[in-house]
Amino acid sequence: MEAANLSVAATAVALPLGSEACSIRPSPGGVVWSTPGGAALPGREPPFSVFTVLVVTLLVLLIAATFLWNLLVLVTILRVRAFHRVPHNLVASTAVSDVLVAALVMPLSLVSELSAGRRWRLGRSLCHVWISFDVLCCTASIWNVAAIALDRYWTITRHLQYTLRTRRRASALMIALTWALSALIALAPLLFGWGEAYDARRQRCQVSQEPSYAVFSTCGAFYLPLGVVLFVYWKIYKAAKFRFGRRRRAVLPLPATVQVKEAPQEAEMVFTARRPVVAFQMSGDSWREQKEKRAAVMVGILIGVFVLCWIPFFLAELISPLCACSLPPIWKSIFLWLGYSNSFFNPLIYTAFNKNYNNAFRSLFSKQR
């Protein structure tokens, strides 16, 4: 997934962007600085603006926070025995993909952002490694979100048939399929010669721009899981609405007790006989209803953030190769890092709705003290 030069396009400072921005000639050491007249001064780095430094600082903080937060989730799942079961293995798979995004993908993307003219100076081999991990980890993160949504859907709608053994098998199968499909999409250009990621002449490193691969990769990495999560959340919403309406109808006959108030003694007998039963059913139903509502809200927020983070980038990735057009570098960078930020939001969302994680975090830090 191509990274653009965010600092250059945003501030229009005197950073060399190539022949389109100004007349420059690289020095023997590869370092140039363009003067207003177009002369290149070798051996000097162009100054960075305050805005550029601020943006770079924010991106570094985003990388560090994404890595540390997902690593904390992984350590908690490994150390707390109660988490060694589903659905925490799906959460662990998501955290692994997001940790790899923060450790292997985002730092090299930031290096590409800071390079003059968005040039890749780290060689062809490292370019292929970076692009492969980029597609692999981001695709796995996206499909893991779909797997979590499916698990919540089956838990809510089929809680009797979706037993612990069935749930364990389903989650293991979803994790295996997630990483297998992600590896296929990431390695397809290398295995089948489906386009080239590295352009030696222009010193560019980006995902293959072959139109057929663009359709295959964007559909497999985003549009297909997007359809899955939207369908799942629609079904969860319908199931929750139906069950809530059914419970309300089950409680509606209660006004019949009001109709017999003309006979005070009989009404008192009916009230004392029915009240414990009704109170018991309402408490049980409300507990399950609250649990299902929390799960539905968690899935809804997870899906909403996922869509907002990734849909701008994948729309651009699909349209650009097909129409042979290109977005301005500033928008490419914004869309790219907005997608990366989804790896930061994932652990925040699915731990914020689980009190067990909060308790585990507190106990983990208290033991370390």
Automatic annotation (TrEMBL):
Extract the GO molecular function terms from the UniProt entry.
G protein-coupled serotonin receptor activity
InterPro entries documented for this protein: 5HT5B_rcpt, 5HT_rcpt, GPCR_Rhodpsn, GPCR_Rhodpsn_7TM
Q: How does it sit in the membrane?
A: Multi-pass membrane protein
Instruction: Report the residue ranges that make up the G-protein coupled receptors family 1 profile domain in this protein.
Output: 69-350
Q: Name one GO biological process term.
A: positive regulation of MAPK cascade
Q: Which domain of life is it from?
A: Eukaryota
Alphabetically list the UniProt keywords: Cell membrane, Disulfide bond, G-protein coupled receptor, Glycoprotein, Membrane, Receptor, Transducer, Transmembrane, Transmembrane helix
Any stretches that span the bilayer, and where are they? 50-78, 90-110, 130-150, 171-192, 212-234, 295-314, 334-353
One Pfam family name from the record?
Answer: 7tm_1
Could you tell me where this protein is found in the cell? Cell membrane
* GO cellular component terms attached to this protein's record: plasma membrane
| Signal peptide span | none
- What family is this? Belongs to the G-protein coupled receptor 1 family.
Instruction: Please give the name of this protein.
Output: 5-hydroxytryptamine receptor 5B
Please report the organism this UniProt entry assigns to the protein.
Ursus maritimus (Polar bear)
| Gene, per the UniProt record | LOC121106397
